[in-house]
Write a structure and sequence with these properties.
Helix content: 40-55%
Order of helices and strands: HHEEHHEHHEHHHH
Strand order of the largest sheet: 1-2
Number of domains: 1
Distance between the termini: 34 Å
Largest sheet: 2 strands, antiparallel
Structural class: mainly alpha
Number of strands: 4
Strand content: 5-15%
Number of helices: 10
Length: 199
């Protein structure tokens, strides 16, 4: 209950205070390349219920039909604005709306597309999907350079399925089994500190 209350208050304040920034970023995305400002994609949420996640669009329209689901290194599908948005995680800001409406939490396992959730071992699936997915979690911090790591693999998508995804799942399950409001707030500060370091 405390976690959900914190999510509602923090996401509502975030949307209110960042409204001018969100408008500027949306305009930048629209001017930078043809297409909508927002990108919507189906992800798997709490208890396996699908939902639509919202991000600022960082790739060309229909990019999913032009390459793999995962982003690898200097992906040619990424727009100029998208490069900056991704580097500083600004593309994730619209997910504050997903938190406010109850589909996500500020902190929780990152939501995956159904294709990858189908690969989850049953026990880990049960644990990881027992909570709302989040904007950040321990795996997000540990794999902040995931795209660059996958770019070095002979088969990036296979490397993600066989190596990265299992490690992320273990970390996500560990988070779920030990999480509390205090540790969530610490993770939020760590995430902001990491982003500030990039700046």
């Amino acid at each position: 209950m405390a976690k959900r209350l914190f999510d509602i208050i923090a996401s509502a304040l975030g949307l209110l205070l960042l409204a001018p920034v969100l408008l500027v970023l949306a305009l930048w995305v629209r001017l930078d390349s043809p297409g909508p400002a927002l990108f919507r994609q189906q992800r798997v949420g709490r208890f396996g219920k699908p939902f639509m996640i919202h991000k600022f669009r960082t790739m060309r329209v229909a990019a999913e039909q032009q390459g793999p689901l995962i982003t690898i290194g200097a992906d040619q599908r990424i727009t100029a604005a998208g490069q900056v948005l991704r580097r500083y995680k600004l593309d994730e800001l619209p997910q504050l709306w997903d938190v406010l409406r109850g589909a996500m939490s500020l902190v929780g396992p990152r939501p995956e597309v159904p294709r990858y959730v189908a690969l989850y071992p049953e026990e880990l699936r049960r644990i990881v999907l027992s909570v709302r997915p989040g904007i950040t979690d321990p795996a997000s911090l540990a794999f902040s350079a995931e795209a660059d790591e996958l770019a070095k693999a002979p088969d990036p998508e296979k490397a993600y399925r066989d190596s990265v995804l299992p490690r992320k799942l273990e970390m996500a399950a560990g988070y779920v089994l030990t999480a509390g409001l205090r540790s969530d707030i610490q993770l939020l500060f760590k995430t902001m500190g990491k982003l500030w370091g990039k700046r």
